[in-house]
What does this fold into?
Amino acid sequence: MPFPVHRMRRLRGSEALRSLVRETRLHPGQFILPLFVCPGEGVRREIGAMPGNHQLSVDELVKECAEAKRLGIGGVILFGLPESKDEMASGAYDDNGIVQRAIRAIRRETPGLLIATDVCNCEYTSHGHCGFVKDGDVDNDITLGWLARTAVSHARAGADMVAPSDMMDGRVGAIRKALDAGGYAGTPILAYAAKFASVFYGPFREAAESAPQFGDRRSYQMDPANGREAMREIELDLEEGADIVMVKPAMPYLDLIRQARDRFDAPIAAYQVSGEYSMIHAAARNGWIDLERAMMESLTSIVRAGAGIVLTYFAKPAARLLG
It folds into this structure.
C-alpha cells in the first residue's frame, strides 16, 4: 500500500523544503514592464483603474526605467500617448513621435535596458481603431504599411525589439520585410500572436486613451472561444518571421499558453493584462485576498503554464519580493 510509505507532506514541512523541491521559479529577468509615455515635463499622472501605474512624461519615464534596471527586470515595453491624433495615425510613425523620443532618452540615460515597443495604431487614431477605417471597418492591407513604417521608425530610434499588437493578417511578414530592407535585420519581433477580443483590457483603455469611438475590435482580435485558431495564428506568425510569440490575456488563456509551449519551440510570452492586474488590486483593497500572495500566485501560474516571458504591471513589486 502506498500509504504510510509514501507521504507527500514530507516535502512540505518547512519553507526550506518547499523551496528545495519547487518546480516553477520566478525571476525578475522574465518580466517586461509596460509603461505609458505622454507629452510634457514632470508629468506623473496616476491611472485610476490601475493603482501604482502612471502616464509618464519622458523625463519621468527615464526614472522609471532606471528603477526597472536596478531591480533586474528583463525590459520595458512602451505605449505612446501622442500630443494629437488623426485618422492616419501619423503620430505612430513620426520619427519625432512620443515613443521615438522616449526610446532615445532611455537609450541615453539607461544603457543596457531592453526596450520593446508596442506597434499599433489605436493610441494614435482619432477613432481609436487599430488601422485605416474604410466603410466602417479596418482595412487590413493599408494598415500593414502604417505598421511597417512604425516598426522601422522605432528601430531607427534605438528600440531593441518591436511588438505588433494590431492582429492584422500578414503584419509580421510586412514588418520583417521592412526592417530587413531598412538595415534592421537584427531587430527581433515579439508578435501578439494570439490576442483575444477580451473584456480584460478595460483599464488599459483608460491608461492608453485608446477606446474605440465606434463599434469594437472583434473583427480583427480573436474570438475567446477559439483555441485551435490561436495555434494557427501562432504558427502563421512564426512562418512570417516572428521571433517570440505571445498569448494575450494570460490567466483566462493558460490552456493556450500550455498548448503553445508543447507545440512550438520558439520563446513563448504572455501578457498579464490590465484587467487581471486591476481585479487583484480591487479584491485586495476590499480585504478579500492578500495582494502579494495573489500577485505571486498569478505570475507563477502563467510561468507554470509555459510562458518564459511575462508582460506584467506587477513587474516592480514582484521583482522587489524576488530580490
About this structure: The domain at 26-322 is CATH 3.20.20.70 (TIM Barrel). The two ends are 43 Å apart (CA to CA). The chain has eleven helices and twelve strands.
